[in-house]
Design a protein that fits this description.
The protein is an alpha+beta fold. Helices cover about 40% and strands about 10% of the residues. The strands form seven sheets. The protein has a five-stranded mixed β-sheet with strand order 2-1-5-15-16. A five-stranded antiparallel β-sheet has the order 7-6-20-19-18, with helices on both faces. Strand 19 and strand 20 form a beta hairpin. The longest helix has about 40 residues, at about 45-85. The N and C termini lie far apart (about 175 Å).
């Protein structure tokens, strides 16, 4: 039986059309080539062949180069990874410490240096603050590996559109990259290498293409080494936020008086808004501008679902406000001054966090600032460039307030006219002339003749001083001479007592300037500072004992109880007798009651003082005291331009009155420690009682206001002393 051939059964072809025959080989099969012949190419193919070869080569080089670059990047990231310390070691990056200044009640009123409020953690900080930072600086923070290509591309596009270079302006940096920059890419500050810490930080902020590459490598390594929250923690603790605040904890304490763990949405938005420009948007510089910036941040937080619509609306309707201490910005000039009370290594250049307890009184400071502003607002034209300074202190030299100029701009190191401006004192110097006479036994009721006077000055020729009003009053008491600020009697008394005696009194009370050699010494030709002059008047108030103005009570390292420096008072050596000081106080009280300083009168509250106006009215002074406080006021132009229509008994006296009225508001009235004079006589008057006043007796006579021709002339001895010296 014949077998059927071994072939596969043919598939059904029902419904299919037979394939058309063609000269082309079936699909999937290649035409057999004739040996020795290649594929045919047309002219265009031949023309493009070199370009195909170049493109192929370029492709092969690119992907091989990419592999090499990735390998190098991986090695670089791995190396940086091995150098990174624990995150806790990176939280406080300050090379220098800070100084916290406390007022007389122990409350913070100022900071110097970079304040570090303490370590905070991204996991325990206020969630509003953490979310505000992410919403503002890096919305894809939790998604990218340290570098955000989308953010970089967007930043480059914006920069080019705005006509800048691709790396100028917007940087597209992630929070991780910003943290890398804050860490200066792991390069620590070396004082032997850098001129200053500021120069080091400026270099760390430089933006170049190579720097951006290294920054990206460092950021990738940080992402590999730390968690997202650890990176955010480092960032929150190291970033600078204006007003000397390093880190969000310090900023929250500085601006709001609370921890960063407690801030609400409005406060969190204001803090996060500082990141773009901390100095410009600091609320202590311009609160309204800072609030406007915060409203933008609130919008971003709502847009990214970090705040509900209701929370956002509440934050916008109730913007963050400064704490009382931050709002006051009190004591800027005082803080600058008191920083010099300790050694530099514990103040300006400290590497520790230092606490300074001071004599500063915020209420008195506010009173002085308000008084100055009130007088300038109501009595000085808006365009005036005139300046003024005020110092308020206690009788022992404890400085309570200091105004070094009309405006303090919120930055340390401004020109402080209270301590840096050395100006002629004018008639404000005359109390030291009469102090010398009283200390030698003369009485306020002794007399001297006010008359034309010419002196021959060796090397200069004749000198003829005049009174301010160019009038002469004949015989006057010392009390009247000081009360009306007469120049001729002051010169005569100074020459009679001897200039050295006057210099001794002035320097003893703390006038450290070189005092004039000639007879113009009595008229305040010498220069001094407002702080020195106020301290000298404090010496008169406390009974003739010199004082050293001071502002520092003690200094200690933060966290330690034992002070490194301490001071309890500024009393020094006795300069004049207590009796002389009490009599001089009485004479100066007459200046305020009925003399050139009447505009300084405080009504029922006893006060004593002295006016001062220098040649051509370049300087105007009023210094004086009550039983409780001593205050000095100076007014003038920084360039020595003469004042127009201003004397010491004018605007300075009014500033003094406005200051002292505010300072003493609500305080009980105390009598001045003064001694009313006896009739002039050679024997000493009764010994003073414990209250400093002369015991009453039938021989006590108050003749300071009697007509000069009715006063005993025993004190004419002054005239006899000077007649041999002066011509008429």
């Amino acid at each position: 039986m014949a077998r059927s051939p071994l072939v596969a059964p043919r598939r059904a072809t029902k419904g299919r059309k037979p394939a058309a025959k063609s000269g082309r080989p079936p699909s999937g099969r290649r035409r057999r080539r004739t040996p020795g012949r290649g594929p045919r190419r047309g002219p265009l193919g031949l023309l493009l062949a070199p370009f195909r070869w170049v493109l192929g080569l370029g492709f092969r080089l690119v992907w091989r180069g990419a592999v090499v670059a990735l390998l190098i990047l991986g090695l670089a990231v791995g190396y940086v990874y091995t150098t990174l310390p624990s995150p806790e070691a990176l939280l406080d990056g300050r090379a220098r410490g800070s100084v916290t200044l406390l007022d007389r009640s122990g409350e913070i009123f100022a900071w110097r240096g970079e304040q570090f409020g303490g370590q905070i953690n991204a996991e325990t900080v206020s969630p509003y603050l953490a979310n505000a930072i992410v919403a503002t600086e890096d919305r894809r923070f939790y998604l990218h590996p340290g570098v955000d290509p989308i953010g970089v591309a967007s930043a480059v596009r914006i920069n080019l559109r705005e006509g800048r270079g691709p790396l100028s302006g917007h940087g597209g940096s992630t929070i991780t990259q910003q943290t890398a920059k804050l860490l200066c890419l792991g390069v620590p500050y070396d004082p032997d290498t850098w001129e200053s810490e500021a120069a080091y930080e400026e270099d760390c902020r430089q933006t170049t293409l190579w720097r951006k590459v290294k920054e990206a490598v460092f950021a990738l390594a940080m992402e590999a080494r730390y968690t997202k929250n650890e990176i955010l923690t480092i960032y929150m603790n190291r970033v600078f936020l204006g007003a000397g605040s390093r880190g969000f904890e310090a900023a929250a304490q500085r601006y709001f008086g609370k921890s960063a763990n407690e801030v609400d949405p409005a406060e969190a938005a204001m803090l996060a808004g500082l990141l773009v420009a901390p100095t410009r948007y600091a609320p202590t510089a311009n609160l309204e501008r800072s609030q406007d910036r915060a409203s933008v941040i609130v919008g971003l937080m709502e847009e990214q679902d970090y705040l509900t619509e209701a929370e956002a609306r509440f934050a916008l309707d109730n913007p963050a406000q400064l704490s009382a201490a931050a709002e006051a910005r009190a004591g800027g000039y005082f803080a600058d001054w008191v920083m010099g009370a300790g050694p530099d290594f514990l103040t300006r250049k400290t590497t520790e966090d230092v606490i300074m307890r001071t004599t500063f009184d915020p209420a008195i400071q506010a009173a002085a600032e308000q008084a100055l502003q009130h007088v300038f607002d109501t009595q000085v034209r808006d365009s005036s460039e005139a300046q003024a300074a005020i110092v308020v202190m206690s009788a022992d030299g404890a400085v309570r307030a200091m105004v070094g100029g009309r405006k303090f701009k919120g930055v340390a190191g401004q020109f402080n006219r209270a301590i840096q401006a050395r100006r002629q004192t004018g008639s404000a110097f005359k109390p030291f002339v009469y102090a010398a006479a009283l200390d030698m036994g003369y009485s306020p009721l002794d007399t001297v003749t006010d008359e034309p006077l010419t002196m021959q000055i060796p090397g200069s020729g004749p000198w003829s001083p005049e009174n301010y009003d160019r009038r002469y009053r004949g015989r006057v008491t010392l009390e009247q001479a000081l009360q009306n600020s007469l120049n001729i009697p002051a010169v005569k008394v100074s020459e009679a007592m001897g200039r050295e005696a006057v210099r001794r009194v002035a320097t003893g009370f703390g006038i450290e300037s070189d005092l004039a050699d000639g007879p113009a010494l009595a008229l305040g030709a010498s220069e001094s500072t407002l702080l020195e002059m106020t301290g000298a008047y404090a010496g008169i108030l406390n009974g003739g004992t010199s004082v050293e103005p001071y502002g520092l009570r003690d200094l200690r390292i933060q966290g330690e109880e034992t002070p490194l420096i301490g001071q309890e008072g500024g009393l020094g050596e006795r300069v004049i007798s207590e009796r002389a000081a009490r009599q001089l106080t009485y004479m100066m009280s007459r200046v305020v009651d009925e003399g050139t300083g009447e505009r300084a009168s405080l009504g029922d509250r006893p006060a004593a003082g002295k006016t001062g106006t220098t040649s051509a009215a370049r300087d105007a002074w009023f210094l004086g005291f009550t039983a409780d406080y001593v205050t000095g006021v100076w007014m003038g132009y920084d360039d020595n331009t003469p004042l127009t229509g201003v004397t010491g008994g004018g605007l300075p006296a009014e500033i003094w009155r406005e200051t002292m009225a505010r300072v003493h508001q609500g305080m009980p009235i105390h009598d001045l420690p003064m001694m009313r004079p006896d009739a002039p006589r050679r024997d000493a008057p009764d010994a003073p009682r414990t209250d400093g006043r002369v015991a009453r007796s039938d021989s006590d006579r108050l003749i300071g206001r009697a007509p000069p021709d009715q006063q005993p002339n025993v004190a004419e001895r002054i005239i006899n002393d000077v007649m041999g010296i002066f011509g008429r």
